[in-house]
Amino acid sequence: MQKNAKDKPVRVLYSFPHRLGADRICYTAWQQVNGLAHAGADLLVMPVDLVRPVPANVKVDTTLTRGKLTVSYRLFGRMRVCSWHDRIVAAKLEKIADKIDIVHTWALGAEQTLRTATRLGIPTVLERPNAHTRFAYEVVQKECSALGMTLPPDHEHAYNEEILSKEETEYRLADKLLCPSEFVVQTFLDQGVPREKLVRHIYGFDEKKFYPDNKPKDPRRGLTMLSVGVVAVRKGQHYALEAWLKSPASKTGTFMIAGEVLPDYRKVLGSMLEHPSVKVLGHRTDVPELMRQSDILILPSIEEGFGLVCTEAMGSGCVPLVSDACTDICQHMENALVHHVGDVEALTKHITILHEDRVLLEKLRENGLRILPEITWNAAGVKLLEAYKIILEAR
């Protein structure tokens, strides 16, 4: 018996203008592909290069890699490489249009692909792993000015008119923008993007790497707080350090910072990094174990997309203390403590509360562990596939 059209796998062209499976967004995209494959999508993935294996049912067609050679971003520049990738994907889409139901793109490598898909009548989505870029530039610049520092011209959050213009063009061309948090949604609404253009989904965590240590912890010991990732202005580490040192938790506890500190920012943080309770660990490859050792993860970002470390911390049995710029998976007094961006007084109170009330700490930890099946990468893949289907049905 022939399958109903609704039962057929959604045929997705997933275009990624970077090295799928590398760090940061490259890791996010790789996990997203894995989750979609697990959910049952029929995937044709076109990245610049593939650096980690994907499931056997995923078809891969790299755009700028031949054998072991990949076009160098350092030599040709990111914008140029992304543009080349975009043109190649758009040209290939012309030839396979009847085999694609929806096109999934990423920023800076999407314009020509989006134009081609629209002309061919194929629905398109653009991934938005962070807030609206104009908002991100403005809020980080404002924070840097308040701190008396200047970002290097090549920093990802230093104002760049070429990048902003390119991305805003892609925002307009895409049928839908995929937003992983309500914070991201709000930054687009504030820039005049209609709500019906914004589609919610989530990112996840790898439950094979991030899992709890269920050995009981001595409630009399000092609190262990952890931050993970590059120590940069947008992550609000100056707020984290100020709140930690104001809290009595710093007298008996430890604040571990797992990440490189940007040189200019180190000058701003100054003596706070020298406090005996603060341990600057640098870049670490044992983050899951650090999370299992820690009581709380702190992420007081002033601008964020989702904050993968939040779900990874929950998976490891570590309670997130986050700003309201982070993922709404973190629910205040349910599985996390959430403060308004820049509210050092509230953040200090939250650290102190968990220092003094280990019963509450354990309750938040247990509630976080309870929702883990809902926030894995496989669960995120199911949600994204459902979003595709809703978009297709609306057409």
Explained architecture:
- The protein is α/β, with parallel strands linked by helices.
- The chain folds into two domains: 6-204 and 376-394, Rossmann fold; 224-373, Rossmann fold (3-Layer(aba) Sandwich), CATH 3.40.50.2000.
- The protein is 42% helix and 16% strand.
- The chain contains 15 helices and 15 strands.
- The strands form three sheets. A seven-stranded parallel sheet has the order 3-2-1-6-7-8-9, with helices on both faces.
- Strand 13, helix 12 and strand 14 (319-323) form a beta-alpha-beta unit.
- It is globular, with a radius of gyration of 22 Å.
- The mean pLDDT is 95.
Summarize the structure.
Helix content is 42%, strand content 16%.
Task: Outline the secondary-structure elements.
Layout lengths: L10 E10 L4 H15 L2 E9 L8 E2 L4 E2 L2 E2 L2 H4 L1 H19 L5 E4 L5 H10 L3 E4 L5 H15 L13 H13 L2 E4 L2 H8 L8 E3 L23 E5 L8 H10 L2 H4 L1 E5 L4 H7 L8 E3 L6 H7 L2 E4 L8 H8 L3 E5 L13 E3 L4 H13 L1 H13 L6 H18 L1
Parallel strand pairs: 1-2, 1-6, 2-3, 6-7, 7-8, 8-9, 10-11, 10-13, 11-12, 13-14, 14-15
Antiparallel strand pairs: 4-5
Helix pairs in contact: 1-15, 3-4, 4-6, 8-13, 13-14
Which properties best describe this structure?
single chain; 395 residues; alpha/beta; Rossmann fold; 2 domains; 7-stranded parallel β-sheet; 6-stranded parallel β-sheet; 15 strands
User: Mind telling me the CATH superfamily name of the largest domain?
Assistant: Glycogen Phosphorylase B
Helix content: 40-55%
Number of helices: 15
Shape label: globular
Major sheet: size, sense and barrel closure?
7 strands, parallel
